[in-house]
């Protein structure tokens, strides 16, 4: 079954903040030790990105590293089964902060949630966020040609849709996606999918297929870095495997990394080496990356257990 009824957000609220901080230090320290030198950063909060007349007033927080030159920027999209969470959720803020220390601007955003609004509303929102970043690039020293996206779980699904289905205005340099529901038809009776689409995948197979990143891959899709808990029971690892194979089959560069012994929640909270690996992947595909590295433009399918 896709997504437990006991959501990670509820679990985290019951945890003491010091406990989470201690655990994060234990699990993330090995990955951070190999990261590039840290940058200080500042956060510009509550930037409205939707235009006048949009169905909802939506905002984001922009994390800006203290470094010279144009800044590559990453759109950060929170998870929450498409019906919960916001731009300040633990998963989104940790990713945004880490990106900022690595020299990337990060725009962590809200989007419309189910069941009040259904697909494709959140995807439309994120396309507006990308348009806002490019329109306001000069004001914040952003490089409009170096825009990528990163998300986990439901957020990973949405950035994967942007990376495969995006139009010219939403074209991305790269996508980092963790615990990605790539094929919604795999869960014909999922309550989460039904809440997101308005119908279950069994009730409307065509809609489920249209809302699945795996069905929108072309040779122009963005390069993908996928990470997934090897023991994930909510979004099975087979989703990452099949998505990676489909990307590679169409000539799209892709890496997929599995976190040993980790399920969906632990991978969200403690991604370990996947966090550093995602930044390394962004560096390879981003012209103004903090750490420039040569890009091999041949399609690649790499799989590694972390």
Structural notes for this entry:
The chain has a single domain (8-305), classed as Rossmann fold. Strands 1-2-4-3-5-6-7-8-9 form a nine-stranded mixed sheet, with helices on both faces. Helices cover 35% and strands 19% of the residues. Helix 2 crosses helix 10 and helix 4 (121-135) crosses helix 5. The two termini are 25 Å apart. The protein has ten helices and nine strands. With 306 residues, it is an alpha/beta fold.
- How many strands? 9
The main sheet orders its strands as 1-2-4-3-5-6-7-8-9
Could you name the CATH topology? Rossmann fold
| Large-scale geometry | globular
Q: Distance N terminus to C terminus?
A: 25 Å
| Main sheet record | 9 strands, mixed
By secondary-structure content and strand pairing, the structural class works out as: alpha/beta
Order of helices and strands: HHEEEHEHEHEHHEHEHHE
Compute the CA-based radius of gyration. 18 Å
Give the assembly state of these chains. Answer: single chain
**Count of helix runs:** 10
Q: What percent of the residues sit in helical stretches (DSSP H or I)?
A: 25-40%
CATH class: Alpha Beta
- CATH homologous superfamily grouping: Alpha/Beta hydrolase fold, catalytic domain
CATH architecture label = 3-Layer(aba) Sandwich
